[in-house]
Design goal:
Blueprint (H helix, E strand, L loop, with lengths): L6 E5 L2 E5 L5 H21 L5 H13 L3 E7 L3 E3 L11 E4 L4 H13 L2 H10 L6 E12 L5 E12 L11 E12 L1 H5 L2 H8 L3 H4 E5 L1
Helix pairs in contact: 1-2, 1-6
């Protein structure tokens, strides 16, 4: 990808990218679904909990998206912030494509994971803390399918008060790949747009990675 900036969209706290070549109408439909899911999750769960991701994914399923694969939980105990660079998401089910993997790598690099891990290691908080991140690269595959890869990340730090001898910093990922079918979404489009209409102006922002 070189040094050329990658265009991305921030939908709430979720970083979203689209691989080149996706029709604008379907891109808009996917973006509306992701905004709908964010609004739904914000109403139902605390932002820092895994429950937020559960609500988010439930909302996507309720709109007719199909779960094709899922991220295998593989918690990594962090002793050096550089370990974050090497963290890889393990997928069970349908494998991700190279463009999707490239986008996910660029999105990981744009997050503050390494900085936050170093902060936890160097300056342990006085109580247990967690920081949540979410990346959603989207692509139209060679066979014309629309794949949405939801990757939720959580960096946690166990309070020194809870363990007087050691501060434990851990990174974990959850999520999965969803199939977006335009014909299925068409049946829910009006409902989705009614929900997201008031939120688009405040929850969507274009950014560069």
């Amino acid at each position: 990808m070189g040094d050329k900036p990658m265009n991305a969209t921030l939908i709430g706290d979720t970083l979203v990218t689209f691989t080149p070549g996706m029709p604008e109408s379907h891109k808009q439909g996917i973006q509306d679904c992701l905004l709908y899911a964010a609004v739904f999750a914000n109403r139902g769960a605390e932002a820092g909990d895994w429950a937020w991701l559960s609500y988010y994914q439930y909302a996507l399923l309720s709109l007719g998206l199909t779960l094709r694969s899922y991220i295998v939980e593989r918690p990594l105990l962090i002793s050096n912030a550089h370990q974050v660079r090497d963290y890889q998401v393990q997928i069970a089910g349908m494998e991700s494509t190279q463009p999707l993997a490239q986008h996910l790598g660029a999105m990981f690099a744009a997050l503050d994971l390494e900085r936050d891990a170093l902060s936890y290691l160097m300056n342990p908080p006085g109580e247990a803390r967690l920081t949540r991140y979410q990346c959603v690269p989207c692509e139209m595959t060679r066979n014309g399918e629309f794949q949405i890869f939801v990757c939720g990340l959580q960096l946690t730090c166990t309070s020194p008060r809870a363990n007087s001898r050691l501060s434990l910093v851990q990174l974990n990922a959850k999520g999965g790949s969803f199939l977006f079918e335009p014909k299925v979404y068409e049946n829910r489009r009006t409902e989705v747009q009614q929900v997201v209409g008031d939120w688009a102006a405040t929850m969507i922002k274009e950014v560069e990675l």
